[in-house]
Amino acid sequence: QVQLVESGGGLVQPGGSLRLSCVASGPVFELAVMGWYRQAPGMQRELVAAVSFGIRNNYADSVKGRFTISGDYVKKTVYLQMNGLKPDDTAVYFCNARLRTYEPVYRDYWGNGTLVTVSS
Question: Mapping DSSP to helix (H, G, I), strand (E, B) and coil, where does residue 50 land?
């Protein structure tokens, strides 16, 4: 079965940087999109950034100019470089992948999440 494994979260001071990684394993036949969402306490889950392989990258307005997403289709991996972190970036960050396995349909898969805390 498909699994998404995230790494790279932690505690960082305001203005600091972190790099998140997520790798997909299992019977992945075709990747369409990989990205990152986040959910702060009491808030809805929101899109942070996503890679549509071969098409474009998308970013939430709140992270443009500070975060950079990159994806490696062959390695089935997505990275999120986060610079200039602010306390408002504190959240659990979830990896998402839209992909096809041996079935002829695309489905969304989620990682378990990694906590990012920005605090002095």
Answer: strand
Q: Are 85 and 15 in contact (CB under 8 A)?
A: yes
Stretches where the chain sits below pLDDT 70 are: none
CA–CA separation, 11 and 33 (whole Å): 28
Report the distance separating Cα 46 and Cα 5, nearest Å: 19
95-120 tens-digit pLDDT: 999 999 998 899 999 999 999 999 99
**Rounded to 10 degrees, what is the CA torsion of 67, 6, 11, 89?**
40
Euclidean distance between CA atoms 12 and 17, whole angstroms: 7
